[in-house]
Amino acid sequence: MGLKISVERTTAPKQKPEISQLGFGKHFTDHMFIMEYDAGKGWHDPRIVPYQPISLDPAAKVFHYGQTVFEGMKAYKTPEGPVLMFRPFKNLQRLNRSNARLSMPSLDEDLVMEALKQLIKADEDWIPSEQGTSLYIRPFVISTQATLGVAPSEKYYFMIILSPVGSYYEEGINPVSIYVESEYVRAVTGGVGNAKTGGNYAAGLKAQQEATEKGYSQVLWLDGVHRKYIEEVGSMNVFFKVGGKVITPALNGSILDGVTRDSVIQVLKHWNIEVEEKTISIDELVEAYRNGTLEEAFGTGTAAVISPIGELNWQGDKLTLNGGRTGPLSSRVYDFMTGMQRGTIEDPFGWIVKL
Amino acid sequence: MGLKISVERTTAPKQKPEISQLGFGKHFTDHMFIMEYDAGKGWHDPRIVPYQPISLDPAAKVFHYGQTVFEGMKAYKTPEGPVLMFRPFKNLQRLNRSNARLSMPSLDEDLVMEALKQLIKADEDWIPSEQGTSLYIRPFVISTQATLGVAPSEKYYFMIILSPVGSYYEEGINPVSIYVESEYVRAVTGGVGNAKTGGNYAAGLKAQQEATEKGYSQVLWLDGVHRKYIEEVGSMNVFFKVGGKVITPALNGSILDGVTRDSVIQVLKHWNIEVEEKTISIDELVEAYRNGTLEEAFGTGTAAVISPIGELNWQGDKLTLNGGRTGPLSSRVYDFMTGMQRGTIEDPFGWIVKL
């Protein structure tokens, strides 16, 4: 690993927010991790410092050419138990795949894991332990070289910030209504849709905004080539239960290789529920709905874990799933995943890392 | 217009770089323009201040979700003449189209024009007047709200920075070799390819890097749906002269509506040269090359104005254009465009704005 992480503790700890006021990604802890990269020198000066603004030249490439990647992870704590993380190395491996796609330097995954441990330890008293709460972890890399030529940056910051977050849903999990998007496209094969980079999220804002105006929570993205194959729902992967079998879009280069997605597939197989990664057309789903075999649908992601879909609007037709209520499989997967993550259900996969 | 621009002059002017050291976007002037936006309040506090770093919370959305837009313009000066700009309102209109696509607040184009004038006036002695030099102008908007929810920001900075730049080419214009990209895709219809946003540039870095490793300057982008229709070259629009007629890809929603592109089309028409905006397949170009009618090709953009293409590599076949030398039409368009922009050739279109 080589590099030693220095630690500067804050002398002015912030007041912690009320649990009821947590929300998502609105409050940040007392410390952050930062490390710099310079071409020819590599990553250097890894350090934990008080959470503070960063100062950048207005010409820094991140402001102009979107050369950024990030990850999202969570740490959990029960009042009596240790701090738990869920498959952190899987996120760090993806972070490096994203780095490669964006022509950014790779990170030493062991060093980043050590940084995560030390940072979370420094802010351990910020981790909420109430049901549905957790510590959201945001590692990210930004390009900081102050030149306007369109080329990979020669300087970067890698940072980790922490945010105590509340339940994504007020009371357990509630189904959301989804608008099937036919005008806007999130990503296309050959692009950066399978990298966790800012541009993918910026590209989705307009469709999300228009869906919200129509009364929908999120959009279901179709592929950019045929405009008929299911890709993601909002910024989550998506699963459908059709005639007793679970299907999810296969990794095709334009959707994100979600850690929750991969975990849910393995959990379903563990339960002997048939699950298939395949190309899924919107027509196939509408047909299943018409003949009564489209039983459930849900999104998967780190923030919400499982987000059941109660309604799909496809070109004005409203497809109500499981009577608009959370389906039994969605509930079962949610309870099992969050139970494992919080340490209240035994983890048969070896996914949980105790800090 | 309403808002008044305040001005704080620097007390420590920087040393200006040697003309031979200018390069592109490496040096910045003594001042910058900044204005802030808050939801419910709108744009406020427009001001010219000494060029300085900006301080942002590490959770600022620009670092995570790529919600950014920018523009590129130039101001020109001859030793004896006034400062000239080229169609600045066309760039400002596109800036607002980009803002709309990225769910960002629109700017008052008259206020921005006034800011441009006052900022360039403040740094007028930074504008180089040597042949091939100019003042590159970079207006940009970044999302600054410090929350991690994926949603349009409620806070933004709009800034303008200025960079004295040298000739894009050492000696006049030289042809570049271009690799026709068949693996990576820049953008797709329904996406953000026609907006000037960071993510489009980040998405192109990997292909550009691999082309460079193969000995090519840039890539020629094909469309993301059929993988056969020409889109852009690097970050420029592209023109081909085939059998005496000039063709350029039609605006299809995934390519940038370039100001230089539009100007070149009008210049060619002014010269009674036939020009057509159309869907152009790579097969059509290869066929024209085989039968000897592919006469010239060039890219267009603010930075290089005209960039002649000497060679196209399509799946290993090398297509040499005009013997690898700058073609007569490319030269003529370059001389006319840069002559108008510098004020040495009369502008018959009313495009030049004297500051």
TrEMBL record, chains A, B:
GO molecular-function terms, A-Z:
branched-chain-amino-acid transaminase activity
Q: Which intervals of the chain form a coiled coil?
A: none
What reaction does this enzyme carry out catalytically?
A: L-valine + 2-oxoglutarate = 3-methyl-2-oxobutanoate + L-glutamate; L-leucine + 2-oxoglutarate = 4-methyl-2-oxopentanoate + L-glutamate; L-isoleucine + 2-oxoglutarate = (S)-3-methyl-2-oxopentanoate + L-glutamate
Enumerate the Gene3D superfamilies for this protein.
3.30.470.10, D-amino Acid Aminotransferase, subunit A, domain 2 (3.20.10.10)
**Keywords for this entry?**
Amino-acid biosynthesis, Aminotransferase, Branched-chain amino acid biosynthesis, Pyridoxal phosphate, Transferase
Pfam family, any one? Aminotran_4
Question: What InterPro entries is this protein classified in?
Answer: Aminotrans_IV (IPR001544), Aminotrans_IV_CS (IPR018300), Aminotransferase-like (IPR036038), B_amino_transII (IPR005786), BCAT-like_C (IPR043132), BCAT-like_N (IPR043131), BCAT_family (IPR033939)
Its domain of life?
Bacteria
In the record, biological process GO terms are: isoleucine biosynthetic process; L-leucine biosynthetic process; L-valine biosynthetic process
Pathway the protein acts in: Amino-acid biosynthesis; L-leucine biosynthesis; L-leucine from 3-methyl-2-oxobutanoate: step 4/4; Amino-acid biosynthesis; L-isoleucine biosynthesis; L-isoleucine from 2-oxobutanoate: step 4/4; Amino-acid biosynthesis; L-valine biosynthesis; L-valine from pyruvate: step 4/4
* N6-(pyridoxal phosphate)lysine modified-residue sites: K196
Q: Which Enzyme Commission number(s) are listed?
A: 2.6.1.42
- Reported cofactor(s): pyridoxal 5'-phosphate
Tell me the NCBIfam families matching this sequence: ilvE_II, PRK13357.1
The record's family statement is: Belongs to the class-IV pyridoxal-phosphate-dependent aminotransferase family.
**Protein name, per record:** Branched-chain-amino-acid aminotransferase
Please give the organism.
Cohnella herbarum
